[in-house]
Please model this.
Amino acid sequence: MVPIGVLASGRGSNLEAVLDAVDNHYLTKCEVKIVFSNRPNAPALEIARKHHVETVTLDDKGVPKKNWDYDQNTVAALQSCGVAPKTGLIVLAGYLRILSEQFVDLYPRRIINVHPALLPSFPGLEAQKQALDHGVKVTGCTVHFVDREVDHGPIILQTPVAIRDDDTVETLSSRILREEHRILPEALRLLTEDQLKVDGRRVLFKN
Ligand code: GRF
Model:
């Protein structure tokens, strides 16, 4: 079983999609061992508790945005729950902190993130608004490995979502979110079933 740690700051709907996928036996080779949050009141924590998953919170108010001193505590919590660098996987599911380079380097190709746009377009915050403002006709979502740059690592899965003339940030976000909830568990399934290899920037099927 691959031990998984989820880092979340907000609503937690992607966390819930992963936990549901485990409960429904879509994901059979992994177990969510810990949900960590930098926001003590994150609704994601309630979702974790409902699923009887260990939670750890460490308020990051006032902490600089990329900070190894802070991240060391996160790593300690992950490790104490069995999410070790070589064997564990970390999922950023709406985690509103940029990881320090030391954190990323400790878990090479073992941290994944879900982003609500077709990277490399519209990285960073408010990706859905960026897409609408730019006037693109298609956006979507991406699950990718995390490297030292924000929203940048090798891409595991992407799905397009067409933009409608009457879309608002809310309507577009909700259609993208539905796809996020599908491709995040799918990416975890491919990874935990050891079906993927990374060749430079390309993530390929092993066979
Ligand atoms: C999602 O849109 C995700 O792509 C982005 O943050 C949002 C988190 O939503 N990184 P939730 O907390 O999983 O509901």
Remarks:
- The beta strands are 2-7, 30-37, 54-57, 89-92, 111-115, 138-145, 155-162, 196-199, 202-205.
- The radius of gyration is 16 Å.
- Residues 8, 10-14, 44, 93-94, 114-116, 177, 180 surround 5-O-phosphono-beta-D-ribofuranosylamine (CB under 6 Å).
- The mean pLDDT is 98.
